[in-house]
Amino acid sequence: MCGRYVSPDEASIEREFNLVRQDQNITPSYNVAPTQKVPVIRAVDGIRKLETLRWGLIPFFAKGEPPKYSTINARIETVETDEAGRKAPYFIHLNDQPLFGFAGLWDRSMKPDGIAIESVVHITMPANDLLRSIHNTGSNPHRMPAILRREDQEAWLAGSVDEARSVLKQYDAELMVAYEVSTRVNSPKNNDATLIDPV
After folding, report:
1. I need a surface site. Which of 42, 137, 154, 160 has the fewest CB within 10 A?
2. Whether this model's pTM surpasses 0.90
């Protein structure tokens, strides 16, 4: 679930999330894949910062070494405590905001040589009606990423634990659009705008 996504250019991220110029040199990608560096917004001392972290959590206790099985999504039901049929890729986006963020968790793991590896994982939750019909196979069917509404960004980034948890809700299926795309997206070597063309 949510093994690929589209990431916009740095200027679009700065505008959407009200960020001061960041100089991260983030370029758009039509095929963000696990283990790649991805744009992440964190609130540090009350200031929103755009940074890039590895997608696929390396927990603090792993001493900077990626685990055998990559953790790119974390189930909302367990986040506080830590196949059948053909799979087809879909381009899923919103019709009420052109750019949006996933709720995620990050961690820092120190390698023995002192180098810090910072990584991130998406939070997932039970799917809404639209995504239930699409993400319906595998070991974790009927899931969707926790998509943040624009008005909930501040609570997620800087609110209390209870305030942040309260914004983790299913996005309204009627505000989402989904259509099947080419299986070319399965290879991270492919990265162009045609990956989001309908098939």
Report:
1. 160
2. no
What is the C-alpha separation between 189 and 47, in angstroms, rounded? Answer: 35
CB 50 within 8 A of CB 38: no
User: How many domains in the chain?
Assistant: 1
Shortest CA distance to 152 belongs to which of 39, 41, 1? 41
Identify which of 76, 40, 75 has the alpha carbon closest to the alpha carbon of residue 55: 40
Beta-carbon contacts of residue 177 (< 8 Å; ≥ 6 apart): 92, 93, 94, 95
Q: From CA 20, how far away is CA 65, in angstroms rounded?
A: 33
| CATH code of 76's domain | 3.90.1680.10
CA distance 91 to 195: 9
Residue 160 predicted with pLDDT over 90: yes
Query: Which residue type sits at 52?
Result: T
Using the predicted structure, report yes or no on whether residue 180 has a pLDDT greater than 50. yes
Structural domain containing residue 154: 5-196
Contacts of 69 (CB under 8 A, 6+ apart): none
